[in-house]
Amino acid sequence: MEIVLLTALGVGGATIIGALIGFAFKNLSHKFSDIVLSFAAGVMLCAAVLGLIVPSLEYGGKYGIIITIAGIFVGAICLNLIDKLVPHLHKMVGEDIEPHKSTNLSKVLLFVTAIAIHNLPEGIAAGVSFGTGNSSQALFIAGGIALQNIPEGMVIIAPMLSAGVSKKKTLVIASITGLIEVVGTLIGYFAVSIASAILPFALAFAGGTMLYVISDEMIPETHAHGSERGATYALLVGFCLMLVCDALLG
Question: Which backbone phi and psi does 94 adopt, to 5 degrees?
């Protein structure tokens, strides 16, 4: 349990580390933001496939392929439904901003909300992976998620500051997105501990949510500002880096 708790804190804390780096480098260009976010998407993609979906097939037994496909789609559909129910965060921020900044603030907070939404299944993915009993594999997943949380934390700081959110509230909101992952990790861990029979489905479910986030949120965001080529190669670098890590751990 100790290693799970430490992992949860590490995964969530990576977002805060990224946020602090973001304060130090506030004037990040769209191109740089797109590249680091694409790198994060590549890391996440590899972790989802190798650390969640492939093990789901292995643990699913005779009906592994059916369980895995069902889990992937249920995970994606659940996240799709959550997307439709996300509230705006204007009241939470509580800033008096100039009228011309309102549109920017709305877009920025929706982007931050999207990050917060996918942090929960990311945390669940980290927690569920401990249910396999393979600590190396679980740490591989957690390490990949933590690695991609750093650039995520970085890229949300500058837009929030430029939209009129105070430094203090910007850090608080960034910290909350990290805390959500801690909660998700504990939920995932306890869910598979209580009912180990759901492990194959839970792994695929977590993998499906991550694939959904990559396709629906991260790739469109990184391809929206004219940096598609750099973003594509950054994704490949992130993916291959995780391949190397998996090979070394194996």
Answer: 65, 30
